[in-house]
Amino acid sequence: xxxxxxxxxxxxxxxxxxxxxxxxxxxxxxxxxxxxxxxxxxxxxxxxxxxxxxxxxxxxxxxxxxxxxxxxxxxxxxxxxxxxxxxxxxxxxxxxxxxxxxxxxxxxxxxxxxxxxxxxxxxxxxxxxxxxxxxxxxxxxxxxxxxxxxxxxxxxxxxxxxxxxxxxxxxxxxxxxxxxxxxxxxxxxxxxxxxxxxxxxxxxxxxxxxxxxxxxxxxxxxxxxxxxxxxxxxxxxxxxx
Length: 241
Ligand SMILES: C[S@@+](CC[C@H](N)C(=O)[O-])C[C@H]1O[C@@H](n2cnc3c(N)ncnc32)[C@H](O)[C@@H]1O
Hints:
By secondary structure, the protein is α/β, with parallel strands linked by helices. Helices cover 37% and strands 21% of the residues. The chain has a single domain, classed as 3-Layer(aba) Sandwich (Rossmann fold). The longest helix is centred in the first third of the chain and has 16 residues, at 2-17.
């Protein structure tokens, strides 16, 4: 109990202090997540709502090769549960060493799971995957266009890109997309930007532009430490055009 409260305070302190402004992107991620790594999963469980929804909606082909870019602690393995053993291979890729240390512990005992310390915009798979997952990673990747383009380019024929993340709409979104009010559009990028998380009105339209959409959901979820407040997120699954 005392350890849980200590973890909570440590994470809250890191979030309030924000992501360090100096150093390389990898260095800033290490310094931001290092003190939070042990408590990461527990403290994000009630914030990253789209993650479970995305995995529930994923129709994995038998013997699938799955790649997660920006995989963090590898919590995807827990969400997939028994489906991990049915996959041919799962690659967990991230640039943050402290989070990957947790992912390596999770991957132990799963011979088909591989953990790679690499930039999501450049990492190359050994074979073309059937599914690439980006779960709450696009908002943290500075060159997010490159991350989407790279993910789509590596997919095997018929493969799918599966994305969940925080979201704000454009002021004038395309037909079929939700429109958020001015407060929502400005508040969330400012709130999360302090921690290096950048909800962007162009993420979802760009995904829809590059892919044939299979699933597109826009929802809102609760935020720990902000009672009554609900943050927009989306879940998107598509095939490259
Ligand atoms: C909010 S966390 C999400 C982690 C995990 N996917 C989840 O759903 O819990 C964002 C992750 O993106 C990673 N990340 C940010 N920029 C990256 C990059 N250029 N290449 C690889 N990973 C990156 C961070 O280190 C972090 O683990």
